[in-house]
Design brief:
Blueprint: E1 9-13, H1 18-29, E2 33-38, H2 41-53, E3 58-62, H3 68-82, E4 87-89
Parallel strand pairs: 1-2, 1-4, 2-3
Helix pairs in contact: 1-2
C-alpha cells in the first residue's frame, strides 16, 4: 500500500535519530513531504539528506519540544514551507524531572 501519504505534509519531532528517524523515512516512502524537527542539527540534517537521496522531499528545523517558542516556530516552518500541515508524529521526549508550571499551585 505504498503512497498512503501522497501529497501530505508530516512533522516528525525527534527525527534526527532512532524511532523518529525511522518514522521520517517511512513517512517519506509513503509519499509525504516531511518536516524533520530535532535539537540534534547534524542528525536532523542527515535524515533530510537520506530522504532527499531517495527522491523524497524534506526540510529540517531545529526545535526543542520543551520550549513553547520552538514548538510554535516548527509548526510555522512547516506551514510556511509547504503551505499546510496534515499530521504530526510527536516522537521527541523530554528527559529529567518535570518542572512545575509557574501558574500552577502545587500546594
Amino acid at each position: 500500500m505504498a503512497g498512503q501519504l501522497e501529497g501530505k505534509v508530516s512533522l516528525i519531532t525527534g527525527g534526527g535519530s532512532g524511532i523518529g528517524k525511522a518514522s521520517a523515512l517511512a513517512f517519506a516512502r509513503e509519499g509525504s513531504k516531511v518536516v524533520v524537527a530535532d535539537v540534534n542539527v547534524e542528525g536532523g540534517e542527515q535524515t533530510v539528506r537520506l530522504i532527499q537521496d531517495t527522491g523524497g522531499e524534506a526540510t529540517f528545523v531545529r526545535a526543542d519540544v520543551s520550549n513553547s517558542g520552538d514548538v510554535s516556530d516548527m509548526v510555522s516552518h512547516a506551514v510556511q514551507t509547504y503551505n499546510r500541515l496534515d499530521c504530526a508524529f510527536n516522537n521527541a521526549g523530554i528527559s529529567g524531572r518535570p518542572r512545575a508550571h509557574p501558574r500552577i499551585y502545587r500546594g
